[in-house]
Design brief:
single chain, alpha+beta, Transferase Creatine Kinase, Chain A, domain 1, 2 domains, 8-stranded antiparallel beta sheet, two-stranded antiparallel ribbon, binds adenosine-5'-diphosphate, binds (diaminomethyl-methyl-amino)-acetic acid
């Protein structure tokens, strides 16, 4: 079946809306040229996803950074003329013929990542997360309610099998969680937020809160998000700047989960995720940090860009800094190993702290 004239009209309207919006600086706008629209507007994946599914979030949200999502794995190849240049731009020049290196989480190397802030002057906390997609399931817009519930029960069974005392914990489904507990978990930076307009417009929040939830250990230093943007987000976090300890725990956690579930990996793009910004390693290693002197300077963002770091606000993506605290992380996740992604954050933050001390 071909793409309906209705959908093609919406794709063309979306293109025109982006063109007419000088305030929009997304990668979608940059790479959705007229030629790309004409080349892709009548294409459909085997699961029925089309170009509108890819672009609709960035069209609805002109303040998107990226603005596109892959409804299923095939979308990354079928809609290559849009994805490839955008991926190259986001991930430090990862070319269309480049290949993600083999996984290297950093086993045996974590002791090289000593505490970045032993006196506790700058860093509030450190967090490293990675995403995983369960083999055999597409991404959000193509999932049915039954898929969500089935995936949740599969991963819950895996969580129940975690016996390592540092990792073991409990799964808390969002469905039935009190608003009070949910809000507190969000406020404390443990849980994903509710009603993300970027995900909503990408058709990623259907049947919410069904199939969504969070697993965590007692100390809330090892956490797993279920069915938010990605099928799984595996997270290690703790107070302070001991990156090595945080990574060590993440490695243990990822290996424990991987033993029990096959995840989708592509030869070229590495671990597959819903958003192209997360492909490859899927690793975002971040600190919540106070750098009052250098963050007040006009070139703070360009210094971070030069160190291949991304600045976010205190409540994550699309939020603002509060009380002078920034979330600073590696930006690229594809074209380097997991350990290199963490090291990029580590070296960059060490440099920023040195600049702050010297300022
Ligand atoms: P993701 O990191 O999974 O891409 P977000 O940017 O939305 O998603 O962040 C999710 C949550 O993790 C937010 O509440 C954010 O404040 C929190 N977070 C990120 N980095 C840190 C950190 N270093 N310390 C504490 N919380 C963090
Ligand atoms: N990954 C996704 N949440 N993000 C990059 C959204 C955006 O385009 O700003």
């Amino acid at each position: 079946m071909s793409v309906s004239p209705d959908v093609i009209a919406k794709i063309e309207e979306g293109y025109a809306k982006l063109q007419a919006a000088p305030e929009c600086h997304s990668l979608l706008k940059k790479y959705l040229t007229k030629e790309v629209v004409d080349q892709l507007k009548d294409k459909k994946t085997k699961l029925g996803a089309n170009l509108l599914d890819v672009i609709q979030s960035g069209v609805a949200n002109l303040d998107s950074g990226v603005g596109v999502y892959a409804p299923d794995a095939e979308a990354y190849t079928l809609f290559k003329p849009l994805f490839d240049p955008l991926i190259q731009d986001y991930h430090n020049g990862f070319a269309p013929d480049a290949k993600q290196p083999n996984t290297d989480l950093g086993e045996g190397k974590t002791s090289a990542l000593v505490d970045l802030d032993p006196e506790g002057k700058f860093i509030n906390s450190t967090r490293i997360r990675c995403g995983r997609s369960l083999q055999g399931y597409p991404f959000n817009p193509c999932l049915s309610e039954a898929n969500y519930l089935e995936m949740e029960s599969k991963v819950k069974a895996i969580f129940d099998n975690i016996t390592d005392p540092e990792l073991a914990g409990k799964y808390f489904p969002l469905d039935g969680m009190t608003k009070e507990i949910q809000d507190q978990l969000i406020k404390d930076h443990f849980l994903f937020k509710e009603g993300d307009r970027f995900l909503q417009a990408a058709n990623a929040c259907r049947y919410w809160p069904k199939g969504r939830g969070i697993f965590h250990n007692n100390q809330k230093t090892f956490l797993i998000w279920c069915n938010e943007e990605d099928h799984l987000r595996i997270i290690s976090m703790q107070e302070g700047g001991n990156v090595g300890q945080v990574l060590e725990r993440l490695i243990k956690g990822v290996k424990t989960i991987e033993k029990q579930a096959p995840f989708s990996r592509d030869d070229r793009l590495g671990w597959l995720t819903f958003c192209p910004s997360n492909l490859g390693t899927t690793v975002r290693a971040s600190v919540h940090i106070r750098l009052p002197k250098i963050s007040a300077k006009p070139d703070f963002k360009s210094i971070c860009d030069g160190l291949k770091l991304q600045i976010r606000g205190i409540h994550g993506e699309h939020s603002e800094s509060e009380g002078g605290v920034y979330d600073i992380s590696n930006k690229a996740r594809l074209g380097l190993t997991e350990f290199e992604a963490v090291k990029q954050m580590y070296d960059g933050i060490a440099h920023l702290i040195a600049l702050e001390k010297a300022a």
